[in-house]
Every structure is written in C-alpha cells, then in structure tokens.
Amino acid sequence: MPRGDIVLAKASGGEPIVRRVWVEEGGKIAVAHEDYYKRWQQQRVEPWTFAIDKADVFKHDDRLFQALEAAYKQKRKGDAAGDGQLTKLWSQAKPYGQ
C-alpha cells in the first residue's frame, strides 16, 4: 500500500472521512489528515496518524464520499432514514488494496 494514497474511510458512527495512507500495520491502516501529510512532505515532520481497521478503508470515490457525507449529516440531525442510507452507501464502497 503506497504511502500517500488518498482513501475513503469509515470512522466511528459511520462518519465518512478522506485521509492519506501512512502505513499498514497488521489488520489496520494508519492514516493521516491531508494537512499533516502536506507538512510531512514539506518539512519532514512525521504526521499524527491513527489506525483504522482494513475493513473500514476503501478506494477513494469523491461522489460516494459526498453522498455518504449527506447521509451522515441526515443521521446526525436525528433522521432515522440516514442510518439506512449510510448502510446502503457503505455497501457500494470498494475495499482499498484489492
């Protein structure tokens, strides 16, 4: 898995996030926020990263991300339909690294 790949990931509660791959660690992938990754590129300051289960990391798809983000906002507003929409949309995401 190349360092720097842009990926779509499922954070807690099904929140969609876009991050940069830093390193694979067993069954997890450490990812970094874009700002931290750019700082590493420019200043070689190692980014703050966090590990996400491989099963929750997907190939980046901007259209899918936007749809997921809208469904997540709907869920956060208390609309129960948002949960179902999130589940449906996440099932369309393509696993990263395959």
Helix/strand order, N-terminal first:
EEEHEEHH
Number of helices: 3
Low-confidence stretches: none
Mean pLDDT, all residues: 94
What does this protein look like?
The protein is α+β, with helices and mostly antiparallel strands and 98 residues long. It has one domain (6-90): SH3 type barrels, CATH 2.30.30. The protein is built from three helices and five strands. It has helices spanning 34-43, 62-76, 81-90; strands at 6-10, 16-25, 28-32, 49-53, 57-59. A five-stranded antiparallel beta sheet has the order 4-3-2-1-5. Strand 2 and strand 3 (28-32) form a beta hairpin. Helix 2 runs antiparallel to helix 3 (81-90). It is elongated.
Short description:
It contains 3 helices and 5 strands; from the N terminus they run E-E-E-H-E-E-H-H.
